[in-house]
Amino acid sequence: MTTIAHASPTRKARNFWLKDAAGRCDSVAGLLLLDTLAAIGFAAGVAGGVAAVEGQGTVLPWAMLMLGTGALRGVFASLALRRGAVRAGVVKRTLRLRAVAATLRRKPGDPIDSGLLASQAVDAVEALDGYVARFLPARRAAAIAPMLVLAATACASWVAAVILAATLLPFVAAMILAGGAAADESRRQFIALHRLSARFADRVRSLPIVLAFRAETRETEAIGAGAQELAERTMRVLRVAFLSSAALEFFAALSVALVAVYCGFALLGLLPFAAPETLTLGRAFFVLALAPEYYAPMRRLAAAYHDKQAAETAADTLMPLAQPEPLLSAQVTAPLVLRNVAIKYPGSDAAAVSNLSLRIEAGEMVALLGPSGSGKTSVLHLLLGFAPLSAGTVEACGIPLVSLAGQASWAGQHPLLIAGTIRDNLMLAHPHADDLAIQRAVTAAGLGPMLAARPRGLDAPLDARGSGLSGGERRRLALARALLTPAPFLLLDEPTAHLDDAAEAALIATIARAAKGRTTLIATHSPALAAIATRVVHLEHTA
């Protein structure tokens, strides 16, 4: 069974995952407040219509007010739901990318299995949907909307406003008690779902092993037992939710009933004490129509409280990924240091690199020169987090380094291309790059003649193999992509391999321009390329 460590959550760790959510619900909360104002207008239409009938006045304006405000309520409610869903989608995309990026930064050998990581990136992030779409807007609206209703009620009957205000405390107490009970059950249910998802993903990944050892029946029964446990916990959550909803409805109905009793007895003159105010039929209807709206924002908040607990539980499960790699500034002033580094791949008898010590000053260009198999590519892969650090230490700007991924421009021996346009392949490195930045990168990499020969230029289609591009054009495309990334480090692996002398000379000039202001490390066989470096480090075959 997959195990999950649930440390005591901290507000700082939760904020790492939830900090983007709070700023995206203001417009939705505003729509909910507009719905409350429309409800006040609807109550005014009801009261005015009743008063007009009583006094034999004109009913049509009040009826139009009722219809108009009623229609507006529908529009505001629909817009709030739609905009909340859009905001939640934006937040989920952002956090899912953050979860995936944090996953890719994990150190080799970290005790978190792939099934759990997949569950975190999918299920845990998905649980934030209701928190952003419903709970946050409801919480902000609940802080203001009841006061608006209370102020409007006080204009018609200050006694009714006092009754509503006095009944608020037991209502809030009931919300806290019910919410606490539902929160505990919700947390247990989400953890059970998280474990089941992680186990299922693990077993699908290792299905050949399960079949080889004829363990499919046992694993099927174990997953079935986990599913049954999840179903039971889900039913407990529903039971608590129904009970808490009934308790909240009871207090809300009781409060409205007190207002109704007061208004009825005041109109009939049956109060056991002298009436503290003069209450007309129109004012009484206005107060009665507004009384349920006083509690509506808080009931909406109570209904969304489960979403809050689910989001916090999801943030707790994401806590193992909540330690982002320290970001390095675009202007690096400290060196990149490798001390007694060894790189040995799993299953390999010999190390690819042994006892390598290297110090690269900020802004320096270092060329790694050596025969094939000497470990040049492995050193670059180590800095990018693609190769394991078997011994020694790596530091960047005085910080222990896990990976330069995201902080380095990179162009490998075999440039990765995706099916799409040339522009799509360039923006793979910097999705938000503008046309001017793209054009500068294209010009610097010497792609201008190639693009000019294509009818659609940057929008020319490519398949995943880069059909129609020569080896030099592919390397220039990879170099342009690296130039487009505003990163302080530039890592290049055999950028001039298999080029003729003229093409190599042109590309070397481009690399020299691109390396200015960046800490650059180049793996190469080319003496001509190594000649532009400020320092050359020779690597030998691993013994």
Could you please describe the fold and organization of this structure?
By secondary structure, the chain is an alpha/beta fold. The chain folds into 2 domains: 11-321, ABC transporter type 1, transmembrane domain (ABC transporter transmembrane region fold), CATH 1.20.1560.10; 336-538, 3-Layer(aba) Sandwich (Rossmann fold), CATH 3.40.50.300. Helices cover 61% and strands 10% of the residues. It has helices spanning 11-22, 26-54, 60-104, 114-126, 129-156, 158-166, 168-205, 207-212, 216-268, 281-303, 305-317, 376-384, 422-427, 435-444, 448-452, 471-484, 501-514, 527-530, and strands spanning 336-343, 353-360, 365-369, 391-396, 399-400, 408-411, 420-421, 461-462, 489-493, 519-524, 535-538. The strands form 3 sheets. A 5-stranded parallel sheet has the order 6-9-10-3-11, with helices on both faces. A 4-stranded antiparallel sheet has the order 2-1-4-5, with helices on one face. α2 (26-54) runs antiparallel to α10 and α16 packs parallel to α17.
